[in-house]
Amino acid sequence: MKTELLIVDKNVDNLDIYPQITQAATFLKENEVVAFPTETVYGLGGNAKSDEAVLKIFEAKGRPSDNPLIIHISKKEQLNEFVKEIPATASILMEKFWPGPLTIIFQKKDGVLSDVATAGLETVAVRMPEHPLALALIDAAGLPIAAPSANRSGRPSPTTAMHVWEDLNGRVSAVVDGGPTGIGVESTVLDCTAEIPQILRPGGVTKEQIEAVIGEVKVDPALTNVQAAPKSPGMKYTHYAPDAPLFLVKGSRDFIQQLIAEKRHEGLKVGVLTTEENSDYYEADVVQVCGQRAQLETVATALYDSLRSFNKTDVDIIYGEMFRNDGVGHAIMNRLLKAAGHKIVEEL
Ligand code: AMP
Ligand code: MG
């Protein structure tokens, strides 16, 4: 398949009649799949009402079919077509955080959306992205758009069109290039079908921000287990992973440098994932700087590009610093733990 690269300046007026957007929307209406930027990461979109289109998304990504997709809309009114009811808490959150990086789970109306998109569940995950190109494209298509991140399954999510191209060239009809995304980690997934809403995936909107608006929210217990055993076997589900094994290190810079030195002594090429504050400190084969620890938003923005950049080097092993587990740090640590397959080395 030939993949069209459609370059669009997101600051142009009347984006929804911009030729490249019209072309991308035509692909969507014809049940083809198109990658496009959002404020979190690039998404791979398809008509959420069409099994044919949604199957193409799973196929292009190599995504397991039991993992449901988020449905993207450009207007709140679109919800009524496929959602049974909008709980009061959801209404308040939509008012406050839409458009934006908050995905809300609702009870689904039957027979409107593709069951492939929702993996046969009774619920549906929905969000309204805050990116002019995403909104213009969804508007121009006039459809709810199912869109997971536009990476091959298991790899770090794409934050530039180049990342998408590396993974999906030849597998999708078009890539809309609108420049780098901003936030860098995916949306927060919040289940609003329960009495007390529950965070299923930490992301761009923090627990603290949500609680400030609606009071108590729960966190899926599976997310809070950061205390994995040291050097736990890397046999758990890995995601967002660079090619070389990544070990997170709970300990001082000195300890990290000691680990690096040991591996280099064994003849291995060693990478380290660090932040601006510590970058001059390490002696390693590759020192990858990922934002500023003092400003965690910058770490989120740079995270996936940093993980991907190790694949352009010949490192055999990577050590990564850890981050505080609140605010946007919650999403960063969640992604890093998955990228590391929960392998943590702890300083004793
Ligand atoms: P991605 O599309 O890669 O950003 O991932 C979407 C995330 O939303 C995955 O973690 C899905 O498991 C989750 N998700 C989508 N739909 C639902 C749903 N109906 N219930 C619970 N989680 C969902
Ligand atoms: Mg993804």
TrEMBL record:
InterPro entries linked: DHBP_synth_RibB-like_a/b_dom (IPR017945), Sua5-like_dom (IPR006070), Sua5/YwlC_C (IPR038385), Sua5_C (IPR005145), T(6)A37_SUA5 (IPR010923), TC-AMP_synthase_SUA5 (IPR050156)
Keyword ATP-binding: yes
Keyword entries, A-Z: ATP-binding, Cytoplasm, Nucleotide-binding, Nucleotidyltransferase, Transferase, tRNA processing
EC class of the enzyme, as a word: transferase
Residues annotated to bind L-threonine: 40, 72, 127, 147, 187
YrdC-like domain sequence ranges: 18-205
Subcellular location: Cytoplasm
EC assignment: 2.7.7.87
Name of this chain's protein: Threonylcarbamoyl-AMP synthase
Organism the protein comes from: Bacillus yapensis
